[in-house]
Amino acid sequence: MDISSVIASKLTQQLINAYQRGFPLCSRPFLQLANEFNTTEQTVIDCLNQLKQTGILSRLGPVFDHKRAGSSTLAAISVKENKIDEIANLVNEFEQVNHNYAREHKYNLWFVVTGANRIAVYQTIKEIEQATQHEVLVLPMEKSYYIDLSFDVSFNQHQKAS
Amino acid sequence: MTFPLNKSHIKNSINKLQQEMLFAEIEQGLPLVSEPYFAIAQQISTPSDPVTEQQVINTIDAWQQQGLIRRFGLVVRHRKLGYNANAMVVWNIDSAKVDLIAQQLSQEPIVTLCYRRPRVLPHWPYNLFCMIHGKNREQVLAQLEDICKKYDLSHIDKNVLFSTIAYKQQGARYAVTSSHNNEQEN
Predict the structure, then answer these.
(1) Which of A41, A107, A140 lies closest to B117 in CB terms?
(2) What is the pLDDT, as a whole number, of residue B70?
(3) Ranges in chain B, pLDDT < 70
(4) pLDDT for position B84
């Protein structure tokens, strides 16, 4: 099943728009969703499996409050353009890294390091510096003003999948 | 890892080790089966400490109410849905004004995250970060300009770092303690 037909499915859109938060905590949550969207439990499960297979769905589960669940920090490396894939792959090998993006700046590789506590996070940063032979810019959060990682997805335009 | 939960908070609560196991299970995502909480209960049960589906549900519910879980549901990769422009906008704002401006930026629906972080001089002068997601670069830049006009921020030193490649985008893995664990989520 290709990604554009998965995105075009009405059930996909309903699930994404209604359940980025507040997923039911009951014995058969997919049945509850199925009843709401007038379909069957198996159809909902199949739809979520397709979303997972196409990579649209990262997971169905919690987004933890970083501060309370453990420790994390934003970090960046300045890498020569022709080395960025290589360095990015080295950073990716650390399971404690959960986001890793190339961005347009002198600091061109940006990633988030998580850990059970601050010491663990800084230990990982040290290991990343050793593995990549690059100095890491460490930018821990000092204050959070706002976070809402769910957002309204508008499906009414032509969707170009990346 | 510190869990805010102790036994007095919920009825029939599960023990601390099993809470940690539950945390580790759900951060990988619920299994896509008819009774996912029952499946998890079986995963974390031991002969001496059986865990029921209802205890799993109660514990997740309590974590949500306490704010340890910020939201619970589908975690999607927005790029796959055509949201290809992901801009990290960084600002160098006078410390006396940063709280006010951060609160203004947070009002804007397209701003999905707004954090203050330390400057690291001389390399990094910016102390406020916000994320803006859009379908393309032009849309994001136009919306950012509107915001700057609205709050009179155009004179403030800022930089827009669009992402060009997503090498990794997955849920946080707080349960991991060793870097030599090769378990992969995706």
Answers:
(1) A140
(2) 87
(3) 1-12, 171-186
(4) 81
Q: For B83-109, how does the pLDDT look when each residue is reduced to its tens digit (9 = 90+)? A: 888 899 999 999 999 999 999 999 888
* CATH number (domain holding residue B128): 3.30.70.920
pLDDT in tens, A39-48: 999 999 999 9
Nearest chain B residue to A49 by CA distance is B32
Q: Residue A64 and residue B35: Cβ atoms within 8 Å?
A: no
Does residue B57 lie in a domain region? yes
- CB spacing of B29 vs A54 below 8 angstroms: no
Own/partner contacts of A14-20, CB < 8 Å, gap of 24 or more, are A15/A44, A15/A47, A15/A48, A15/A51, A15/B74, A16/A153, A16/B74, A16/B76, A16/B81, A17/A152, A17/A153, A19/B73, A19/B74, A20/A150, A20/A151, A20/B71, A20/B73, A20/B74, A20/B75, A20/B76
Which among B57, B116, B173 has the least Cβ separation from residue A25? B57
Question: Containing domain of residue B107, as a range?
Answer: 78-162
In the stretch 114-173 of chain B, residues with CB closer than 8 A to chain A read 114-118, 120, 123-124, 129, 133, 135, 159, 161-173
In this structure, the answer to whether residues B110 and B156 fall within a common structural domain is yes
Query: What is residue B12's predicted lDDT score, i.e. its pLDDT?
Result: 62
Residue written as token pair 């030599």? B180
Question: For residue A141, what is the nearest residue in chain B, using CA coordinates?
Answer: B117
Asked if the structure places residue B184 within a domain, the reply is no
- Mark whether B100 and B129 lie in a shared domain: yes
- ipTM for the whole complex: 0.71
The pLDDT of residue B8:
42
Assign residue B70 the CATH number of its domain: 1.10.10
Per DSSP, the three-state class of A97 is strand
